[in-house]
Structures are given as C-alpha cells and as structure tokens.
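fwd from M.: "can u put these together and see what the complex looks like"

so here's what she sent:
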Amino acid sequence: MATALGITHSSDTARETERELSKFSQTLQTITTMPSSANNPCLAAEEPLDLENNGQAEAEARMAQYWVLNPPKPPGPWRDLVNSIRKTCFSTVNKFQSLKNQPFSATISLLETIFPVFLWCRNYTVMKFKSDLLAGLTLASLCIPQSIGYATLAKLDPQYGLYTSVVPPLIYALMGTSRELAIGPVAVISLLLSSMIQKLEDPEANPVVYSRLALTVTFFAGIFQAAFGLLRLGFLVDFLSHAVIVGFMAGAAIVIGLQQFKGLLGLTHFTNKTDIISVSKVIWRSVHHPWNPFNFIICCSFLTFILITRFLGKRNKKLFWLPAIAPLISVVLSTLIVYLTRADKNGVKILKHIKGGLNQISIHDLYFDSPQASEVAKIGLIVAVVALTEAIAVGQSFATMKGYHLDGNKEMLSMGVMNIVGSLTSCYVATGSFSRTAVNFGAGCETAMSNIVMAITVMLSLELFTRLLYYTPVAILASIILSALPALIDLNEAYNIWKVDKLDFLACIGAFFGVLFASVEIGLLVAVIISFAKIILNAIQPGIEALGRFPGTDVFCDVHQYPMAIKAPGILTIRIKSSLLCFANANFVKERILNRVGEKEDEETKGDAGGRTKLVILDMSNLMNIDTSGIASLEELQKKLMLHGTELAMANPRWQVVHKLRLANFVNKNGGRIFLTVGEAMDGCL
Amino acid sequence: MATALGITHSSDTARETERELSKFSQTLQTITTMPSSANNPCLAAEEPLDLENNGQAEAEARMAQYWVLNPPKPPGPWRDLVNSIRKTCFSTVNKFQSLKNQPFSATISLLETIFPVFLWCRNYTVMKFKSDLLAGLTLASLCIPQSIGYATLAKLDPQYGLYTSVVPPLIYALMGTSRELAIGPVAVISLLLSSMIQKLEDPEANPVVYSRLALTVTFFAGIFQAAFGLLRLGFLVDFLSHAVIVGFMAGAAIVIGLQQFKGLLGLTHFTNKTDIISVSKVIWRSVHHPWNPFNFIICCSFLTFILITRFLGKRNKKLFWLPAIAPLISVVLSTLIVYLTRADKNGVKILKHIKGGLNQISIHDLYFDSPQASEVAKIGLIVAVVALTEAIAVGQSFATMKGYHLDGNKEMLSMGVMNIVGSLTSCYVATGSFSRTAVNFGAGCETAMSNIVMAITVMLSLELFTRLLYYTPVAILASIILSALPALIDLNEAYNIWKVDKLDFLACIGAFFGVLFASVEIGLLVAVIISFAKIILNAIQPGIEALGRFPGTDVFCDVHQYPMAIKAPGILTIRIKSSLLCFANANFVKERILNRVGEKEDEETKGDAGGRTKLVILDMSNLMNIDTSGIASLEELQKKLMLHGTELAMANPRWQVVHKLRLANFVNKNGGRIFLTVGEAMDGCL
C-alpha cells in the first residue's frame, strides 16, 4: 500500500555518510594515538583494558567505544516526517523530471501511469480477447441477478444494482491495476449502506430521498477513496486488520442472511434494525402469523439447485461455468414458472416493473446543502474504508496468485474516480466482489477487458430485457444472496487466528459480536479499539529478561528461550522486553531490575553461584526510543545500584536512544558506561 | 511503584528449565549424530555447511540452529497475567507463610509492615527528637498560614485548612514510609477541588452543602488511593508522566495566581471558572470599577517581604528558618496593623471569626445517596491520582537524596487511610506538599516525628489562637499563596524536556495550555491522550534500517548510525525499527523492504557494488511480538522475493515470534530459513 514510500532520507544520508566517514578516518587516528583517558569522559570505561598490546584489536575496540558514543546526529522527527511526505507526494513527479525535455513521451508515460489500460492494450491479442469474452459473459450472467439482489438488500430499486454494474466496471477497466477484480455492487457494502442511511431516512416512506442520499454517500465515498489514493494514505486501510475483517465478514453474512427472511417469507413489514435480536423478534412474530409458503418453497428449491451446481463445479473444474450461470438460469426458470402459473395471484411477491434504459445523469440528485451533509459524509468515509479494504484484500490475493504487483494507491484512486462518476450516473457504491472475482479468475480472464464485456452485456440487458423481469419472484433474489453468504464465513481462518494470536482473535470476535448484536459500524469501532489497545499493551509491557551467553558463541540470549545459555557469575545481563522506555513502563522496569538484583536466593535457584551481583548490563539493542521519564528512571536506577554497590553498564543503544541520553547528558553526568556489545561491556567493566 | 511485581513465572520456569535442559542434552546427541537433512525441515538450511569437519564448531552451529526453531513453549498471555497477579497480591502473604508457626513474631512483623513507625521508633534517640522538634515547629509556622490560605483557595472556611493539618499528618506519621514528606493541604489539589466541585454546587450560595461535597470527595479519594495501594496499582500514577506534571503544575500555578486577584483587589464577586480568559475578563472589569488600594498594598508589601526573606535564606543556609517563619510573621504583623488602624473600616477584607476547637466528627456530613454520587466519585478519582502523583514524586526525590527506598504501594495505602479518616474528621484532601517538604528537609528532620510535632502545634493553635486571627486581612493569604507559586513553574525543566524529547514537550505544553484555557481536568485529559498517541506512533512506526558488519567484529549495526559498517555485496540485511509487526505497520514494512530490493541505483549510491540482491536477511532481534497480519505479510514478502529471485532468511527471532511463526507453520510451509545470528544466516545461505 505504501509502494511510493521508499526509505526516508536515503539521498541526503548518503551525502552525510561520506562526511561522517571522512570525519571518522581523522578521529580514528586521533583515537588510536591518544592516551586511554581521553577528553571523552566515557573512554574512562576503557581503563581496565590493558594498554600493553596497543594493537589493532584495542584500536578497533576503542573505535567501537568512540562511535557508540559519538554517532552522527540522527534525523529529527520533523525531518523524518518531511522526507517521508516529500518521498510520498513527489515520487511520481520526480519520475517525470527526467522526461521534462521530451514532452511527448512525458505525456505518454503520464497517461500510462494514470490509465494502465494503455500499457496492456498495446500487446493485446485476439486469443486474450477470446478468454476475456468468455469470462465477461460468465461474469455478466452471475452479475445481473446478484446486482438486482444486492440493490434490494441496499433497499434501493432493482435497476440501481444494474446501473452500478455498468459505469464503475468501465472506469475501473481504464484505471485499475488489477486484472481479475470484478467490479460492482457487493453484499456487505449494500448492507452497510442500508443499515446506516435508513437512520437518516426511511426507505419505505420516501424512497426518492433515500436513493438520493445513497447517491450522495457514494459521491463522498468516491471523494474519500480518491483522496486516500492521491495523498498516499493507503495505510489507513491496514487499520482494519485481517482478523477484524474475518470477524466482520462473518457477522455481516449472518446479518444479511437474516435480512433475507423478508423475501423468504414474503413479509411486507420488516425492521430497519440489523442486529440479530430485533430481526429475530420480527421473524418470530411473522412466523406465528399465517404466511404463504410459496415464496419459501421457491427460495429453498432454487437455493438447493444453486448449491448443487456449485458442488458440481467444485468437483469438476471443467464445469466452472455451471455455478456461474446457475443464478441466471434460476431467475429465468422461476420467472417462467411464476408467469405460467400466475403465482403472484397467490401471494408470491414479484419484482413488478423494473425501470429500463441506461443510467440517468444524477448530478442534480446529490444533496450537499442538506442538514445531514456531515452525517452523510461520515457514512461515506466508513463505506469508503470498508469498500477499499475488501477490494484491495481480494485484488492483492489474486495478484499474488498470478505473481504481479498491485499498486494500493493507484487502486484507491481508480476506485475513487469510479465511485464519483458512478454517483453522477445513478450508481451506488461499487467495489471488488469476492465471489465474482473468483468466478472471473476461474473463467480464465486475461485482462480488465472482462469487466468491459460484462458492463456491455449488462447495458444491453438494461436496454432490452428489464421488462422480462416483471414476473421474477423476490424470493429468488433471496436465494441468490443466501447462496453467496457461505463464502463470507471463514471458520478455518478464524481457528488459525485463535491458534496463533489470542488477542487478534479477541479483535475478530469483537467485530463479529459487535456486528451481530449492535450494528455494523459499532462492530468495526469495537474491533479497531481492541486492535489499538493491543498495540499499547504490547508497547508498554514492562517485562525484562535475563540474558546468558550461548555456549560457544558471543551471542547473548534469553535464558528462558535458550535454557543452555550460560550466565556469568556476579553479572546480571538484562534486556527490556519493550521497544519504548517511556513514562508508562520505565518505573516498572526499574523496580523489576532492582528486585532482580535484590533477590539473591532467586538467583541461586537459577544456578547463578556468583551470589551478589557486582555488575548489571542493560542490553538496549531492542530499545527503539526513550522519553524523559525513561531517562529519569535510568538515572535513578544507576543511583540505587550504586547504593547497592553494583555497577550499571549499557550495551548497544540505538541511534535515537544514545542521542537522547547524550542530550540529557546522562552519559557525562553519571559516567554511564556504554559499549557496543554485551561482551565488550563485560570486558570493559571487569 | 511495582516493588512487589517481581519477575513473572520465576519459580516454575526454573523447574521448566531443568526439564528443558535434560531434554536438550538428549537432543544434542541426536543432532550431532544425525545426518544434516534431519526430519526437522529447517535443518535443510544447513546443507551448504561443509560436512567434512564434523567437529565441535558444526555441532554447536547445528545445536544453535535446532534451538532457534525448537525453544521451550513461551508462557501464554494468560499465564503471564495470572503469575503477575499472584506475585502481586500474595507477595506480602507469602512473606508471613514462613512465620506461620510462631504467631507472635508474625503479628509483630505484620504490624511493622503496616505501621513502619514501629520500625523507626525502636532506635529513636533524644538527639533525633531535638532535630525533629525544630523541624516540626518550623513546619507548623509555615503550615498554619498556608493551610488557611489553601482552604480559601478551595473555597472552604479557613478552619478546614487547619483541620487538614492535624489528623492526616498524624496518621501518615504512623503508616507512611517517607521521613521528610510534609502532609497537609496543597495549592494544586485545593484548586482542583474547588474548580470541579463548584460545577455541582455554588460555594457562595450554600457553603454547607459545598463543604459536605468536599468531604465526600475526600472520602472517595481516600478509598481510591487505598484501593490502588492494596491492589498494587501503583503504576497508574506513572500514566501522568513527568513531562505532563511539569506542564500541569505550571498551568495550575498561573491559574492559582489569577485566583488570588480576588483577595488582592478585595473583590466580592468573582467567577467560578478557572480558565485564564474568563478570569482575566472579571479582573479587567473590576479594575475599571473603583476599587480600594489597601488590600493591594498590604498584599504586595508582605509578598516582597516574604520573597526577600527567601532570598536571604537561599544566600545563607544558616537562615533556613527565616523564609519558613516569614509567612507567620507577616500574618501576625498584618493582623496587628489592621487591628491598630481598624483598616477593616476602610474596606480591607478580614477573615472575621474562625471557628475554633478541634476537628469535629463529620461522618454524617458525607453524601452517598445524593444524585451526584457518581459525579463526586469521578472527582474523587481524579483528585486521588493527582494527589498521589505529587506526593510520590516529591517523596521519592527526597528519598533518593537520602538514599532509602520508598514503597509506592505502601505510600498509597497510607495516603488512602489518612484521607478516609480525614474525611470523617472534617479534613479535605491532604497530600505531600512540595514547598513544606523542602522546608522540613532543610530544617533537618530525622523521622516522621516532625509531622507529629507540626500536627500538635496546629492543634494547640486551633484550641487557643483562632480568635486572634479575627483581624487577619484576606490579602495576606493571597500574598502567602502567591509566594508559593514560583516553585511550581519549572522553566528549566521544561527546556530540558524540549531539548531531549519534542513529543514529551508536546504533552507538557498540552497540559499547560489545557489547564490555562480550558480547565484543570481537561488539561490532564489532553496530556494523557497525547502521551498515549505518542506510544502508538512509536510502536507502529514502519521504519526499516539497513545493517552492516562493524569492522573487525561480528556485530551488525545500522549503517547510518555507524557509517563505517560494511555491507556484504548482494546481501541486504534489514532490521525493522518497531517492536511489533502488526496489522498497522506490517504492510508498510513489507513494501519498504521490497522497494529496497528494487532500488538498485539507490543501493549503488550506498557503495554496495554487488548490484542485484540475492539474499535478504531480516534481523528480528528487536521484534517482541507479531500478529496474524504480520505473519501474513512476511509470507507475502517471501513469495514476492522469490518471484524477484531473492532469498529471505531471518536472524534471531524472539521467543513469542518464533513460537507464533511455528504455530502458523510459516517455518515448515515456506522452509523459512531462520538462524541465531545474522552471521550464521550469511554462512548458512551462501
């Protein structure tokens, strides 16, 4: 997602490095020649080293010592930020700096960057088109019924679903970088839209306002997506972690399934809430009223038909098209049946008139001056993030399968543009559908051309066949949606998450139950909060671990992880378990180290015969950063150790840490003994 | 603060270690004897090692290899938690397990644990008492006027201040572990109380209810503090970092100063708000009305007097008592002057009648059934935390000066008890005062006896002298409070924070301006939020750094920190800059590594002649933890590197990390090459 964010300050540090190295070569001479007690106070730590063999070894040791304490100034937070931003924003610009003098090729490559279609259409062959055509048609046959179904799920008129399968795919085909992604309406987004918008407006009461709101939300979603792409904010999508998505999808699937009971039982009144409790109440109530079974029969029979075809498709790869066109077949069949038996007279709900013709221009339908504008924008943001997360997750998995790279930021830009244009041509939020993308891949599509084929097919059907859908029973849509749900519930993955990381699983479960019992957006919120709480807990955990020398090496490692590691008697080598010694854990860590030093008996049980510890070595190699509280507690630690007659030495502090220690002149004030490695610290102090 | 939280699972891992070691000694034989392509799939990585010299070296190398991949199972989060809690709660209990059979000594040592007074009163000498007496009297002479002043700051009647200097110090003397801490009312807490309680009740309108609320808050604060102590939640105090306290104190000082204009100008009406804007408005308005100058003159003249004495005290250590008794002197003088000149007739505000006699029992004044109970409890919590933070900060700094240890949890317990008992004897929240503790220390106190002396002195003055304070001008209290403020503003420290850590300074400034322009509690809230945002930023920063071999050593370090570090051609050694590879940064890190591998030219500028990178070594030594998203992106990274014809190896993964990688069978599935050190990885892979 962050392709354009290269290594920060790469070029200027190159220059700096040269400067440093020249400086270094001078200092090295001075060091090797100068007496051991140099003006640098910390070279005092070198005293114990015997000065007889004033050879290469010692020179190097002292050089190390010197450079541990006098590294080049690390880049400050601001500079890091600025560099990062510059890298991010101007990476594309820089690319064209070189081509400035030949404007033609510059424009070409600019066009190619914005419209990847120019890249692949060059060497596009008839063979490729054949497979794309096949894939496109298969896709269309699955897409038409699904679109209608999802539109009803989004509480919009059926034609909006079809509209959404026309314009967005065409635009994505021009701008997108994925070859397999099948664009159009999807179940989760449709649910998300209806569940959030109907808090502002009742779709039954005044559908016109509702649909206008939906279009406005789509517009905002597009704006946000495009903005993410342009500002390279791809990483925002990462904040919905994989675990969260698994839980969220599962919850959403169940909620969607419950929504289908409306069509299934042919109910006229249904709740606007999406949580399982209120929905089940409604269903329970309606089941106990007399209800007509025909809808139910139609739905179940065709659902079984679709599932059987899918099973066959799985068994025999040659029949991949069968599950794909099964929905279309069932729509046609059910429509015929209803038409012939006139079952609508006996209470079978039918679609009735679907508005034919192509997408209308809907610029004037967008609300901006409404009082709910801010509310609508908020919904737009949520929808945008969720849509992107799903699309990029799907796109990337297939890209990795085929072994090419997906540019997250370009993807976002193209999705944004397609939704903006979509909202102006009466489409609601479109994104990459998981089920259809799989079909597209299975049908062996080569390029985004399959999307174009699909779009054109849908367009034709909008022109010609909509009035044929008059008698299509609503129940069939329910069965089509239901057949798409099992793919959303991934128990296996959930089990893996549980196995590997309990806290991740907690986030997953949080999302699941949040969606199930509260609402879709609350589910997401809960999950995100859990995820970040996890990060904080991990960052400030105040653990310490005793290190020992791995036998036969110069490596010091955790004595619990490597039980054969040998502790030096009288020396306590400690590594802090977190990457940040800050206000929240510094005191804790200090106390624990002091406890360790105190607990003689405990030491002995660990087979450390040395009794009293004379030296504590703090391995700071995994301490990324430290704050003023951290430094303060280090100072206090040193004071208290001194009272206890124990020395404190430090090994391998990182760039930021040593820099801050020097600024707070911890180094000079306390003569802090700082070395490159734990081994050197032992040699240096004893 | 966390003394009792020793190393988790120390004892049982000791046992485990033995088990492991025995297991290990067996496995070691099997390894050294078995062929290199063992059933352990990852030993495949060993192939390149030449099998001729099947000696010690290789045995060790393979042993390392084996143990990297097969460490003992790390303690799960639950077990860690349980251990930690057990350690925490039963540490004191365990202490008495040993003494179970001799009940007498058990009770003794229990008493000594709860009441440290028994420890120090044993070897208490007349000499010690002399110095304590002197210190106590000095303390009292400073404490009496300050108490009255702070009571007015807390919008309570003057006697409450005096009450608060009687009971709490006596209890603390019995239970507290600090020898210098001077207990009583303090400025910041008084301000905090008034600023928050007067949102519930107007102190002018019905002072009785207000003071009852104040007592209830005190009670709750005591409960919370005691609970913190008993549950060993000392670390909660750390969440107000040093930087935050600096900013908060400075802001509070200014706010308190502004509050003094009421007494300074002898205003009758004043705002209940504490933020600088509304207060300055009131002052501005009142300055433009005719106001009488006498109050102002009295205040300023005595303020200058106090400051001069303080200056003298600083100059000449022998005169330490002068600044201490200056407030008392000025109270006496000003009272005399007003009495003789009858200045109260000309608009000089005076204290009038102060209710004499000792503390009344105030059990029946506590509200529990009031509708505001929850609100009051909330205030209690905030006050409790702030009070503890100040007291422990002050206490610990002096303890470290004298070189003894302060038990944070005991401190909390004793503060809690003293405030609970205080609230039942009409005292409001007491804590350790910075200024008075310094005086106490300067006066050479030996033990907490000085607190007892002070309390008795105040008690006597309550009995005898309160009616002498009838003519004491209110302005003098303002001058006493004002004279105490400069100690709260520590510009020097603020500068140090700025110098060392910009983000810490941000938190500091946040607290400062929050207190100044919004309100005291909002200031704290802002600061805490900033602090935790800082932690998150630090934890998920997606930086990577290229490593090189430090010349003449086997140490690999950041090439920017150590410019002389040498990169091996064709090998890219990367270390991740955060301790957590999680959903929030994993993707980012992956992309950056891929960029690095991609950027050939960039490599060359860094003097890496090797051109194409054949091997990427991920130094995982500072990766504390990884989640499912992290593992997923590692897998993706490996896939993409393979496409690019580059190998991925890992060095020194931590316990949790390698455990999770195995659970997610990343190791087996991708034959991930994992080694103990970067050096071994290089040898192993090339």
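replying to her w this: Residues 542 and 585 of chain A are 5 Å apart (CA to CA).
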